[in-house]
Amino acid sequence: MKEHGSLTIHPVRLGGLPLLHGVAQKLGLMNLLERYVPTDPRDKIPVSQTLYVILCNVLLERFPLYKIEEWAAQRELIANDLISSLNDDRVGRALDRLFRTDRASLLTSVVLKAIEQYNLQCDRVHNDSTSVTLFGQYNIDHKAAKPNRGHNKDHRPDLKQLLFSLSVCGDGAVPVYFKVWDGNVTDDKTHLRNWMALRGLLGRADFTYVADAKLCTRENMEFIHSEGGYFITVLPETRKEDKTFKDWIQTNTPLWQEVGRRKGLRQQNPDSLWWAFESPFLSAEGFRILWIKSSGKERLDEEKRRSRIDKTVETLIELQGRSHKSRDRLKSDLGDIFRENQSERYFHWLITRTVEKSYRQAHRGRPRPDSPYRKIEKVIYTFSWSHNQETIRYEARSDGLFPLITNKKDLAREILSIYKYQPCLEKRHEQLKSVYHVAPVFLKHPERIEALLFLYFLALLMTALIERTVRKAMKEKGIESLPIYPEQRECRRPTANKILDLFRDVRKQTILRKGNPLEVIPDDLNDIQRQVLALFQMNTSDFFLARPG
Residue 335 sits in a domain of what CATH number? Predict the structure, then answer.
């Protein structure tokens, strides 16, 4: 607040808030929060408003829930006379109330509204999970998902975690369902419950469910098939069908059919190609297996194998130059080398025992013709090695291959195209961790953590809708890129984070006289900001007047 005589200037930092308000209004988010998380008459600030402030804070701040009172005051999200009540205790109690409410029904209402308002196509759904790493000790006597040690995808086995399972539709990778699981739950145990929840939410069973290799169990696939659903997943290398086909191609040549091509990113880079071949062998459950051959994966597989072999050879040569007196120690060193490089199958090796004999005078002094000598035997262990050509040739025949298992009857080109959308889901997990900083979580109660993760799901939903709206409008208007990168470099596929960041410094100033507003003076928007607003179907005046939905 700046004073100039009898006038005062009250600046408000808007940033990307008006864009969030626009999405929230289309979803009717505030009304839904008020319906499912009712406010207690004793609340100074409606709990729905507190939850919305937390949601916006998650979306726009690099350190969510940190100094939230000061942050909200700068953006006029809470009335000035109530801002002091937005303390840590109120935030915590709001999350408690959210946890105790019917979050499943709230999620369904929000997602159905998004499908209706944005005309989302949900004929296919992609699912994957990621770990949310937690720091500290947690009470496990509660109804929330339990933090436990598990297979941590952040490579932190020393810490506890929760499993964040996310499902997105194939139309803009917009999140449509999520669930928080105990930290030690494996993915194969989550798919049936996820699929049944999606069937109830979408009101249909004939959608295509796409997931990683953990979906490939008899129970999962046969259940989805028997219920009239479709699935696409990867056949794990541990299945017998994988070895059967790889043995078959050693003496047979598949008739590969080109099903995809993508130009190299640079002129000197080769094009990426994909081929498909319908396996002559069905899965044990009777489902079709499509083998895909990728030129990029073929090069990568060859390079990885060559690198492992070359690193192993270098270390073996170094080890050969040493003297080895213990067979067990030498065997252990060889095992460490092969284990570190994952290369034992590429080598034959043999340890040999050699006895070196030498003679030494039994007594001191100058030797005489009759001086006695004693024999000294020294045991030395050496090893020899050679390449396992048979295994190397066997694996080389499988370079670039991966199998897809499905109950769909579509062409191989369509099956591959659907599966290749999976990285768009993985991008949502990357945003959850790297952009919205889900960890560390500054909460110690698992109930509040689970409620906060619900808000993170809403955050991913809203940002996905912003991305989809702008990208769809760009396509319709024939706009190939927007200069929103630093130094006005072009961006062909703008993310919500870049779009919101474009408005980071936008403000409006209210001139007051004795506390009464006289005039509101907004910042001037530049050309690219106006262009993005037009793509978002929002004019400048609506931007500065937008309020929470």
Answer: 3.30.70
Regarding whether 286 and 142 lie in a shared domain, the answer is yes
Secondary structure element (H or E) that encloses residue 340, with its range: helix 327-341
Q: Which of these three, 342, 375, 396, is where a domain ends?
A: 396
DSSP code per residue over 347-415? EEEEEEEEEEEEEEESSSSS--TT--EEEEEEEEEEEEEEE-HHHHHHHHTTTTEEEEEES--S-HHHH
**Rounded distance between C-alpha atoms, residue 350 and residue 512, angstroms:** 89
Rounded to the nearest 10 degrees, what angle do helices 88-100 and 446-477 cross at?
A: 80
CA distance linking residue 215 with residue 209, whole number of Å: 10
* Lowest mean per-residue pLDDT among 264-268, 406-410, 423-427: 264-268
Residue 154, pLDDT score: 74
* Prediction pTM value: 0.89
Three-state DSSP class for 195?
helix
Backbone angles phi, psi at 43, to 5 degrees: -70, 130
361: which residues sit within 8 A by CB, 6+ positions away? 367, 371, 372, 373, 374
Whether 261 is in a domain gets the answer yes
Question: In the structure, what pLDDT confidence band is assigned to residue 442 with cuts at 50, 70 and 90?
Answer: confident
Report how far residue 71's alpha carbon sits from residue 543's, in angstroms, rounded to the nearest whole number.
Answer: 20
Residue 68 above 90 pLDDT? no
Q: Which domain holds residue 382?
A: 301-396
Least confident of 119-123, 456-460, 489-493: 489-493
In a domain, 521, yes or no: no
What pLDDT does 510 receive? 80
Query: Within this chain, do residues 229 and 168 fall inside the same structural domain, yes or no?
Result: yes
Specify whether 180 is located in the same domain as 208: yes
Look at the chain and report how many structural domains it folds into: 2
**Residues 421 and 276 both lie in one domain:** yes
Q: Tens digit of pLDDT for each residue in 98-117? A: 999 999 999 999 999 999 99
- The neighbour count for residue 136, using CB atoms within 10 Å, is 11
Question: Of the ranges 111-120, 215-224, 257-266, 388-397, which one carries the lowest mean pLDDT score?
Answer: 257-266
Q: Could you tell me which of 416, 121, 51, 463 has the C-alpha nearest to residue 261? A: 416
